[in-house]
Write a structure and sequence with these properties.
Shape: globular
Distance between the termini: 26 Å
Number of strands: 4
Mean pLDDT: 94
Length: about 140
C-alpha cells in the first residue's frame, strides 16, 4: 500500500471506531449538535474541529465527533455547537493542548506508524463490535 492508501485506510478505521464508540448498544448515535438520531453506519460522519489536512490532529479523538452528515457537510460541522460538545467531553485543558498541537508544523506520519495505528483501531473496532453486539 502507498502512503496515500494507508492514510485513506486509517481514516476509515478511525471513523468507524469513533462512530462505534459513540453509538449506544443498539447502534444508534444522537447527533450532538442537532439532536437527530441515526444508525452508526447511516447518516453519520466523523467531523473534525481542526481540519483533516493537519496530520498532527487528524486522528486525535479530542478533535472529532460523530455528527450527522448534513451538519458536517453542509453546515461546516456547526462549529459553535461542536466546540461546546468537545469542551464538555474533554475539558478546556485537553482542548487547548489539541489546538496547540494543530498549530505546530504539520508532520506527515510514517508508513510504519500508519500500519501500526490501522492495526490498533481494527482491534478496538473488533472489541467494540463484540461488546455492543454490532456487525
Amino acid at each position: 500500500m502507498t502512503g496515500r492508501e494507508l492514510v485513506k485506510k486509517l481514516d476509515a478505521e478511525f471513523s468507524m471506531y469513533v462512530r462505534l464508540n459513540e453509538a449506544d448498544d443498539s447502534g444508534c448515535i444522537t447527533c450532538p449538535t442537532c439532536g437527530r438520531t441515526y444508525k452508526y453506519n447511516e447518516g453519520i460522519d466523523l467531523s473534525h474541529f481542526c481540519g483533516r489536512k493537519n496530520h498532527n490532529v487528524r486522528w486525535d479523538e479530542r478533535n472529532v465527533i460523530a455528527q450527522c452528515a448534513y451538519e458536517n457537510r453542509f453546515d461546516e460541522g456547526n462549529k459553535p455547537n461542536m466546540a461546546e460538545v468537545l469542551l464538555k467531553k474533554w475539558g478546556a485543558k485537553e482542548l487547548a493542548q489539541m489546538r496547540a498541537l494543530s498549530k505546530m508544523p504539520n508532520k506527515r506520519p510514517t508508513d510504519e506508524w500508519l500500519r501500526m495505528t490501522i492495526a490498533e483501531y481494527r482491534s478496538k473496532i473488533k472489541a467494540l463490535r463484540e461488546e455492543k453486539g454490532l456487525k
